[in-house]
Amino acid sequence: MTKKQLEECRNRLLEEKAKILERYLAKEETQQRLEEESKEPRDWEDIGQMTYTEELLDNLSQIEITNLKEIDYALKKIESGSYGVCESCGVEIAFERLCAIPWTRYCAQCAEEIERESGTFMPSYGFEPMLTEDIEIEREDIGEA
């Protein structure tokens, strides 16, 4: 990995960290507003909606806290000089993968193996676009122009 690529990954990590922290502050403001509104709920529907929103915000924050930890870990690896190396097989992680997931610890192959072992693997079935000439319209009320 070149110094320029490493700096690009570092900047991407710092940007993502800033976005997460910004969302966290917005979440805190939303929860504070919900707490104020919940002091005088108007009906059961309002109570249900507020409860759902609070649970959703809590789940999002857990995911983002995990991502923050991974980002901080990746930044430490940049400082130590071990960033971009798969923690499983020791092979250099493709720069394209680091651009997509800059806090990743594993190359694509090892990540797939780990996901298979943990039961979280989701295979990609690909996407075949449907071409307009493949579409047949059989309606009597539509005539040719």
Automatic annotation (TrEMBL):
<keyword id="KW-0175">Coiled coil</keyword>
<feature type="domain" description="Zinc finger DksA/TraR C4-type">
    <location>
        <begin position="81"/>
        <end position="116"/>
    </location>
</feature>
<keyword id="KW-0863">Zinc-finger</keyword>
<dbReference type="InterPro" id="IPR037187">
    <property type="entry name" value="DnaK_N"/>
</dbReference>
<dbReference type="InterPro" id="IPR020458">
    <property type="entry name" value="Znf_DskA_TraR_CS"/>
</dbReference>
<protein>
    <submittedName>
        <fullName>TraR/DksA family transcriptional regulator</fullName>
    </submittedName>
</protein>
<dbReference type="InterPro" id="IPR000962">
    <property type="entry name" value="Znf_DskA_TraR"/>
</dbReference>
<feature type="zinc finger region" description="dksA C4-type">
    <location>
        <begin position="86"/>
        <end position="110"/>
    </location>
</feature>
<keyword id="KW-0479">Metal-binding</keyword>
<dbReference type="Pfam" id="PF01258">
    <property type="entry name" value="zf-dskA_traR"/>
</dbReference>
<keyword id="KW-0862">Zinc</keyword>
<feature type="coiled-coil region">
    <location>
        <begin position="3"/>
        <end position="37"/>
    </location>
</feature>
<dbReference type="GO" id="GO:0008270">
    <property type="term" value="F:zinc ion binding"/>
</dbReference>
